[in-house]
Amino acid sequence: MRKIVLFKLAFAITLFSSCEVLDEASKLVTSSTNPSSNQNTAPKLTNDEVISGLKEALSVGIKNSVNLTSVSDGFLKNNAIRLPFPPDAQKVKDKALEWKLDGQVEKFETTLNRAAEEATKEALPIFADAIKNMTVKDGFAILNGGDGAATKYLKDQTTSKLVTAFTPKVKEATSKVKLTEYWNPIITKYNNAMTLTGGQKINPDLDAFVTQKAIEGLFYMVEKEENKIRKDPVARVTDILVKVFGSLTK
Q1: Nearest residue to 191 via CA among 182, 175, 202
Q2: Which of 52, 62, 36, 50 is nearest to 215 (CA)?
Q3: Is 227 helix (H, G, I), strand (E, B) or coil?
Q4: 21 pLDDT exceeds 60?
Q5: 8 A C-beta contact, residue 98 and residue 104
Q6: How far is it, in rounded angstroms, from Cα 167 to Cα 163?
Q7: Is 80 helix (H, G, I), strand (E, B) or coil?
Q8: What is the pLDDT of residue 46?
C-alpha cells in the first residue's frame, strides 16, 4: 500500500513538472510567432524620423491654417483670432463711439481683419521655408512634450524672422483693402480734438499691429492642427505622421 501511494505521488510531481515545461514552451512559441505579443519586435523611431514627422505635422498645420484664415471672414468670424481695435488706440475707439461713429468703427475693424486675411494668402511659402530649415537636436523631447510643443518650438525659433518677412506682405494687404481710408477719418477727428483739449495724440502703426496679430492667429491655428494630429489618427494623413505620432498611443 505504501509503495502505491509513493508511486502516485511521484507520478503527480512528474506530471506537474511536465505541465510547467509545456506552459513555458507554449509561451516561447507564441512569442516567436506573434510579433504583437513581443514589444521588443516593434521598430524603434530614430531622431531623424521624429524630426521628419514634426516637420510634416507643422507643414500640414500651416497649409490647413492658411486655407482656413486666408478666406473672407477667416479672421473676422473666428473669435479666437479676430483682430480687435488696436489696444494702443482704445481711447480713440471710446471717443469715436461717444461721437456716434459706430459705423466707421465697425467698418475699420472689419477692414483690419480683411487685411489679415489678405496677408495670410502670402504666408504659406514663408512658413514653409521656416519649417524646412528647422533643426532640432532632440526631436523626442518635442514629440513627447505634449500639446502644441512643436508649434511652440517653431514660434520661439522663427517669430522675429517671420515678422521681417511678413511685414511687406501686410503692407500690400492693408493697401489693397484700403485700411487707412477707414482709419484716417477716425484718427484725424480724434487728434484734432486732442489739439483743442491738450490731450495726447495717437497714431499706432497699423501694419505692425496686423503683422503681429496675423502671425499670432496663424500660430494659434497651427497649434490646433498639431494637437489634432497628436490625438486623432484620422488626422495623420501621411505614413510618417502615422508612424511618428502613432508611437504616442502605443
Answers
A1: 202
A2: 62
A3: helix
A4: no
A5: no
A6: 6
A7: coil
A8: 95
Cell numbers at 49, concatenated: 524620423
For 31-60, give one letter per residue: b (16+ CB within 10 A) or e: eeeeeeeeeeeeeebeeebbbbbbbbbbbb
pLDDT at 234 over 80: yes
By CB atoms closer than 10 A (0-12, 13-18, 19+), residue 122 is middle
Query: So what's the pLDDT on residue 70?
Result: 96
Burial class (CB in 10 A: 0-12, 13-18, 19+), 68: middle
Classify the phi-psi angles of 146: left when phi > 0, otherwise alpha if psi is within -120 to 50, otherwise beta.
Answer: left
In whole angstroms, give the CA distance from residue 179 to residue 214. 15
Cell digits for 236?
Answer: 495623420
User: Is the pLDDT score of 158 beyond 80?
Assistant: yes
